[in-house]
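Protocol step 4 of 5: obtain the predicted structure for the target chain.
Materials: sequence only (see below). No template structures provided, no constraints applied. The aim of this step is simply to have a reference model before the mutagenesis design in step 5. Sequence pasted as it appears in the construct record:
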Amino acid sequence: MAGVLKWVALGLGVGVAASVIGSGVYLWTPAKPDFDGEAARVAATAYDARIIRDAYGVPHIYGARNADVAFGIAYAHSEDDWFHMEQVLMQNRGRLSEINGQASVQSDYLMHALGNIEHVAANYETGVSEPARAVRRRMQRAQSLVRGQSRDRL
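Step 4 output (structure tokens):
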């Protein structure tokens, strides 16, 4: 009986220690910066896209430059399917469990274990062409603008 009590006490001690460490890590982790909707609006002023939706809601995007049209496409896509865009983005960053909780921890672990995040960070500037990076910047600005305008809805 004394041996069983010893194991129970050891288990409780480990549990308390893990709780204290976990709480410390949680409290030590800095809060994410707040989203700056005004900065998103300012960045979006570089583009002049017109989005006209037909009777079926299909967006038709017009702009003087390719950059304007690319921005408009990303804006319309963000309006129409923000939920899935956010899911894919967070999954690729290994942070899907921040949205979906425990159900996505394995996905996050896999992304980190494979080293995808570190690989992209190390090779993005040299491995991705400037035109492709420019398209990504346009998409990011459009997505930020939609998020800023629709914060309560998203």
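Step 4 remarks: Strands lie at 49-53, 59-63. The first strand starts at residue 49 and ends at 53.
Proceed to step 5.
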